[in-house]
Amino acid sequence: MAKILMVDDSRTSRKILKDILVDAGFEIVGEAGNGEEGYQMYSELKPDLVTMDITMPVLDGISALKKIKESYPDARVVMVTAAGQKSKLIEAIQSGAVDFISKPFDSEKLVDIIRKAIV
Ligand SMILES: [Mg+2]
What does the alpha-carbon distance between residue 42 and residue 36 come to, in Å, rounded to a whole number? Predict the structure, then answer.
């Protein structure tokens, strides 16, 4: 079973995403509320995949992605984006993000992207 770490400062977003992923058979091994916490949890848990929100306090998603990829080049990170974040998204892909899922979540599309992102 693929292990996923979710990083998002919105508890509601995490809850919605968690329900979709658990229903699809993934295991959520951790939840972090900001990028720094996400980095720490990545180091401890070594999940198969990370879902990474972009706008977060302390350390934003792009910086957290860069930090994770710097320490763990094989890390697989899928960005979670909201409308109007296209330029951030380009930066994320250039920084090594595998793909992205958009809010509001379309569960079928989302599960498909996550499955493909876990190699
Ligand atoms: Mg956010």
Answer: 10
Low-confidence ranges of the chain (pLDDT < 70): none
Chain-centroid distance, C-alpha 73: 15
Residue 71 sits at φ, ψ, to 5 deg, of -85, -35
Mean pLDDT over each residue of the chain, to the nearest integer: 96
CATH class assigned to 3-117: alpha beta
Could you tell me the distance, in angstroms and rounded to a whole number, from the CA of residue 62 to the centre of ligand 1? 12
Instruction: Give 61 Cα–ligand 1 centroid separation in angstroms.
Output: 9
pLDDT at 39: 98
- Could you tell me the distance, in angstroms and rounded to a whole number, from the CA of residue 73 to the centre of ligand 1? 24
Neighbours of ion ligand 1 (CB under 5 A): 9, 53, 55-56
Centre of ligand 1 to C-alpha 26, Å, is 22
Domain boundaries of the chain, sorted by first residue: 3-117
1-14 pLDDT, tens per residue?
899 999 999 999 99
Task: State the residue for tokens 């958009």.
Answer: 102
